[in-house]
Amino acid sequence: MDAQTWRVGCHCLLLLALVGSTRSEGLQSCEEVRKLFQWRLVGPVKGLQDSPRAGPDLQVCVAKNPACCTRKMEESYQITARQDMQQVLQTSSSTLKFLISRNTAAFQETLETLIRQAENYTSILFCNTYRNMALEAAASVQEFFTDVGLYLFGADVNPEEFVNRFFDSLFPLVYNHLINPGDSSLEYSECIRMARRDISPFGNIPKRVLGQMGRSLLPSRTFLQALNLGIEVINTTDHLHFSKECSRALLRMQYCPHCQGLTLSKPCMGYCLNVVRGCLAHMAELNPHWHMYILSLEELSDAMHGTYDIEHVLLNFHLLVNDAVVQAHLDGQKLLEQVNKICGRPIRTPTQSPRCSFDGSKEKHGMKIFIRNGEETLANRRKEFINSLRLYRTFYGGLADQLCANELAAGDGLPCWNGEDIVKSYTQRVVGNGIKAQSGNPEVKVKGTDPVINQIIDKLKHVIQLLQGRSPKPSKWELHMGSGGDMAELVSGGCDDEDGCRGSGSGEVKRTLKVTDWMPDEMNLSDVKQIHQTDGSSTLDTTGAGCTATTETMALALMGAVMLLPGLW
Questions:
Q1: What is its main location (predicted)?
Q2: What tens digit of pLDDT does each residue of 181-193 get?
Q3: Which pLDDT does position 15 carry in this prediction?
Q4: What is the DSSP secondary structure assignment for residue 489, as one 8-state letter?
Q5: How many CB atoms lie within 10 A of CB 36?
Q6: Which of 194, 229, 467, 549 has the fewest CB neighbours in a 10 Å radius?
Q7: Pairing relation of β-strands 422-423 and 514-515?
């Protein structure tokens, strides 16, 4: 006898000895079964058998030989088998759930920080440049950014309304402090406010703000809504209701061998796959929709850059506010005539506006936490998250296989339970994943559809449509707001000068005005110098402020600043 034949013979003898020993011990006494049953159910249970008996009253764990289970034990085991399956489901999805929930919280926190930072920039703009109107503007600034946050986090507010409301409230301040200085009655200020949309004192800037807010806020809002739906999907599948057929199959696979004293046995891999694929057949139907959900998240995330990047838009909002004030001041004489025509001439008293009391040192100290390098931007956080999430695109399609391979089934080459006995291998046909594949499942009968899973699929389909509808194309998208902004539509068009963007030649949209960690401060005209670019155009660089702008834009701002200086202090 050669060495190989001897090893095979020894392996067979060991296998038979293990099976026979386990079987004989189970048949001689129920002590091990009693101990395991009491431990598993946490506490003593009355009526447990000391020795195996014939069990004609058993419904699922029926065996030819005497068993250690009673009908009540079988019922308890069935409940435990369902709980065990829910536990392994929750364990298998815990990493995915943590990934989404952790990043959802991080994105929300980052957006809240960006909103506070943008509000600080705008408040400091008023305090440093337009001090006389700063305190009166504070409430409008705070309300505007509160509405931005409410909209981002899903509240039923309309961006068109809060953008217009901000500029409506800004016009009386600009008029009373810069165009026709002096205090006026509340009625007269209200008339000025109401006239803003008719006389357009800020030119196209409110329209530009609305366009930028629409292009950046709506995708970010939809992205957050989609992440919350992802958490809902996982929570739903973690607590899936198992059918009666599935519960019986899980009982037979997990605990029926206990009734025969086989407390250490594990199911054969093929047997386990048939049972778990049958139990999770409806859940497997989520797989193509989950795959498309992650792909759509990835596409939207990749498209959220430039004027579609909420970080860029919020942190540059104060620049547009400044442009709006300068525009109104330059057109002051014309606006004065228009307001007099609509509201009449006011009875003026010298303005007594209190000075700004904004604690700049406190805010500048707090601003240190906002300054991020290129690796810490919101866009890079999204990219890192999507790269991790991409690994779970087929999560629901391979879940049954993962559970059997990692948690439930016996290892290759080991004796295993086939639903009736301990064997060397499972000989029945192994079916695939999904409902259609279960027609030939020898272990579980799958009937009908699961309304809970169908509802989740419908929600995934809906959010996929939203994600794909919010993915910007290489062109301009204008926002046509619905009642709550949730079902708003995006309509494409070409990027123009109103957006403050220019073509790069590759379809990418870039802001002409770039600001890097800039805080508005008093502008020193001696710091201005002209720089000639390689393309022949020229820009003005305000080295004290750390920003660049087109010649026309900065010249307009400088003209306004010169005109404003005598009346600002």
A1: membrane
A2: 887 788 999 999 9
A3: 42
A4: E
A5: 14
A6: 194
A7: unpaired
pLDDT in tens, 390-420: 999 999 999 999 999 998 999 888 899 999 8
**Cα–Cα distance measured from residue 385 to residue 104, given in angstroms and rounded to the nearest whole number:** 10
- Render 276-324 in DSSP notation, one character per residue: HHHHTHHHHTTHHHHHHHHHHHHHHHHH--GGG-HHHHHHTHHHHHHHH
> DSSP H helical segments within 153-268, as ranges?
159-174, 186-199, 205-238, 244-254, 256-259
pLDDT tens-digit map of 468-524: 886 654 343 344 443 333 333 332 333 344 444 433 333 333 332 232 233 333 333
**What is residue 530's DSSP assignment?**
E
Structure tokens that stand for 315 in this block: 């942190």
CA atoms of 217 and 21, how far apart (whole Å): 68
Identify the CA nearest to 224 among candidates 377, 108, 376: 108
Distance CA 451, CA 269 (A): 30
Parallel/antiparallel/unpaired status of strands 501-503 and 476-480: unpaired
566, containing H or E segment = helix 551-568
Neighbours of 78 (CB within 10 A): 21
Mean pLDDT of all residues in the chain?
77
Cβ atoms of residues 155 and 312 within 8 Å: no
- CA 228 remoteness from chain centre: 6
More confident residue, 416 or 24: 416
pLDDT in the model for residue 63:
77
- Residue 370 identity (one-letter amino acid): F
The DSSP 8-state label assigned to residue 242 in this structure reads: P
Listed residue (484, 481, 514, 505) closest to 215, CA to CA: 481
75, two tokens: 């019922």
CA–CA separation, 546 and 501 (whole Å): 19
Whether residue 328 contacts residue 335, with contact meaning beta carbons closer than 8 Å, is answered with yes
